[in-house]
Please model this.
Amino acid sequence: MKVLFWGTPPFAVASLRALDDEGFDIVGVVTQPDRPAGRGRRLQPSAVKEVALDQGFPVLTPDRPRGDDFMKEIRALEPDISVVVAYGHILRREVLDVPPLGSINVHASLLPELRGAAPINWAIARGHSKSGITIMRMVEALDAGPMLHCLQEPILHDETASELTARLSEVGAEALVEALALLTAGVIVEKPQDDDLATFAPKVERATARVNWSLPAVEVSRLIRAMDAVPGAWSEISGAPVKLYRPQVVPHHLVDPPRTPGAAGNGGPPPGALAPVPGQVVWADGERGILIAAGEGGVLVTEVQPPGKRRMSAQDWVNGRGVVSGQRFE
Model:
């Protein structure tokens, strides 16, 4: 089977490698153009492009996957099927219909839940207990095509978006190979999605990743894990944005002052202390991290990235006098 592969980020690499390992004829790879990256803002190829060049696959990097010249290029490759994995552009009907077997997509959710650009981030942010991969036939509507194959995966306790992305990348490669085997054997059953059950996972922007400390600690913790590592959940302190990572939920009785004298314990605040307001640093400890009050309970942050600096342990930031008790994140 001749495959035209479409993909850009590291998430797509496992699927590309799996197709190659299984002996599929990869006639071409379409990926995003090189982009500036790093402090020097030098042009960097996508993760998929790097692998494709190493393997000797023909690579196309259009600014937009459309136009007469581009259509001639992909038709000349004579693919039997297109496989799309986090490519980054919506494909028009004329592009989807080039291969005789059509175009299929590796999507990181259990459709029809979480259609859209950021299903992994929103699965964690919304407190889902499971995620997975859906292989679907592509149509012009957003992630709405018939489902060919699904694999379900649990979302582990305290798992970050970065960790779940890496795990689902491998699951996606497995599901893709299985779906193509079923398709080749002519035994695959295409299941239409129930649009009434659809939910959506819009692209994550920097504004999305700003922490709202008035929310319960459980929801704040989910957001921080969901935004790891890009764009990174953040909050301002003393007018400077700081990215926050590796949160732990702390129950309210260890954050709010005890109601009766002598009731403090297990590291809680002393009797008679004023209740911290959301966003306030309850304590900043060079051994444990930073405890920040939320709308209900608190969040112990164990990694941070201050502006202009590398990601570091919260303990190092505290020991470097980056934050002290009583300051407030906004």
Observations:
- Confidence is low (pLDDT under 50) at residues 260-266.
- The chain has two domains: 2-197, 207-319.
- Residues 34 and 135 are 27 Å apart (CA to CA).
- DSSP finds eight helices and 15 strands in the chain.
